[in-house]
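Record pair follows.
FIRST:
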Amino acid sequence: MVRIFICFTDNIYFYFLGHTVKPTHTKNSRAGFIRRLAAMIYDILVAVAVGMCAAMVMLLTMLLLVENNVLNNQGYEHFSDLIQHSFSYQFILQVWVVLWVLGFFLWFWRNGGQTIGMRAWRLRLFSTNDQPFGYRRAFLRLIFSFGGIGTLLVLIDYKSKQSLQDRIASTEILTLSKEDNHHAAWKGLQD
């Protein structure tokens, strides 16, 4: 549950899982395109690594199951031939990898509002309404990002600096100060 409340006294309160944290700097602005792009590049590298690890685990599991005759080898002598020519095994592998990569983004957005790249570039996801930021809204945000293309709207709408996925999911990406991004600032939030 991620919420942001802006008081008329220019105090910004971050409301996360029932705990309120007042940042040390009261003026956090929405993130610009370059900072978002840098965080996306960083996150793509991490997502590729997550996908590679997920694929390795699934391939090893499939190999063991095929070699022990639990799964059908479909007439192929070697497992590598089976993976290269079997649509069903390729499909299972690709769905497995996509689910892990989607899960990476959804879990990090839902549990703390920052992916690893967003943390490195001091960005954080906040809700712009009083609704809790759950997996449904995180998935909605992920779908409408169109692989990052939705972020191009920040270039056109430079005054409000909101991407397509931010507008649809009622979220915003704020740039945090170094103090606010430090793990000590979020102490007690994960209780």
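SECOND:
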Amino acid sequence: MGHSDTHRTLHDLFNARRYDEIEAYLAPGFLYEDLSRTLTVKTPGEFTDYLRGWVTALSDATVGSPQYAEGPDHSVCTFHGRGVNDGELGPFAPSGRPMDLVFCEVLHYAADGTVLSGELHYDQLTLLTQLGHAAPHATTYHGPTVEQTVRDLFASFDRVDGAAMKAAMTGDAQAVDEISRAWLRDPASLGGYFDGLAEVVSAVRTELHDLHVVEWGDSAVATMWLEQDYTMAGTPEHVSAPTTVVLRREPDRWRTALVHTVPLPDED
């Protein structure tokens, strides 16, 4: 049996919860380090207790999608640790959230093929984030501001630039079509609306007044008053409307998830 075979057997035994059989593969003086937690396990019994600790926190914990490689006295495995946090994880109460995290484990072997030592590497912050026990990683965003994104969106309306309008929207965006007085709630309807605008309207000119932006992490809302002039079927039209734009920040830019603008009737 090669070292990779031993490594695979140990993972299979963990997945089957056959902890007592794992100890037979461990050499005298066995040592194991969870480097992400700066935790050192010093005996075979402590090691199986350590494994049981994972199962306490994630009762369906498994080693999945493993990839093994070996050398003369060691083996390396990268795998996906998966499970749902349905038990206590250290000081954290169960969150009910799933984990799917990449781990890297290195095992070192004695001359008789038993395991002398091991090290486990993984991103503990990502683990805690996935399970809802830590805030997501902060990211640095260098793209246009929310206000500039909103102004650019309406500038593309003024140009009747369907491609730019579609590129400015999220994949699940929604909008109100003031002409047909209907909601547009799927990419096909919204894309068709943008593509067909040039055949319906011309000479579009938009002014945004009292533009106010509030951000919450990767979400934002912009409220404003819209004054818009355009020509439809040769007839000049004017729209005056309170308008709301909801945006979601994506890696490269803010994109629009909702445009809600409903013209008010003229005052008597």
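COMMENT: The chain has seven helices and twelve strands.
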